Amino acid sequence: MVGEAKYACYNISMEEKTKRHIIGAIKQDLSDRFRVIDNTVEDKRLIAGSFPDVLLMRQEPPKNDDVLFVMRIEDEDLVNSVPAWKELERSEVSFYLVVPEKKLDEAKQLANAVDVFAKFAYYTLDYQGKAKVKYE
User: Fold this and answer.
1) Inter-CA distances, 114 with 8, 78, 108, 121, 130, Å
2) Is 39 exposed, middle or buried (0-12, 13-18, 19+ CB in 10 A)?
3) Spatial separation of the C-alpha atoms in residues 66 and 114, rounded to whole Å
4) Segment 27-75, tens digit of pLDDT
C-alpha cells in the first residue's frame, strides 16, 4: 500500500511538471502578442464555471483584464474533460484545447460529437520533457 501511495504521488508530480513545461512553451511562443497568464497557480481566475490552465490577454499598456482566449491543457483522458469543455464553450471567450499530438484527431472527433466548438493546439514532449506546442 505504501508503495502504491508513493507511485500515485509520483504520477501527480509528473503531470504537474509536464503541464509546467507546456505552459512555459506557450509563454515562449505567444508572449510577444499576448499577456500569457498561468492560471494553474494562486489567484486562479474562474471563466464560465471552470479554471482554464492559461489565459491569453491583451498586451499592456493600458492595463486591462480583457481575456481574449483561454486554454485548457489535456492529457490522455479526454472523455472525462468534456463537461469542462462545455462550460468553457458557454463563455464569451474563445478557447483552445491543447492536447497531445497523438490525441489531436480523437479530441477533434470528440468535440464534434458533443457539439463543442474549440480551436486546437497540440504538444509534443522530447526525451527531456521539453514541450513544443503547435497551433491550428
Assistant:
1) 31, 12, 10, 19, 32
2) buried
3) 28
4) 999 999 999 999 998 889 988 888 999 999 988 776 677 889 999 999 9
C-alpha 30/C-alpha 83 separation (Å) is: 27
pLDDT digits (tens, 9 = 90+) for 89-124: 888 889 999 999 999 999 999 999 999 999 999 999
For residue 71, the tally of other CB atoms under 10 A from its CB is 26
CA–centroid distance for 31 within its chain:
16
pLDDT tier, 84 (very low <50, low <70, confident <90, very high otherwise): very high
Nearest Cα residue to 27 out of 91, 66, 62, 73: 73
What would the grid cell of residue 34 be?
Answer: 499576448
Strands 119-125, 94-100: pairing kind: parallel
Entry pTM? 0.84
Residues 6+ apart with CB under 8 A from 105: none
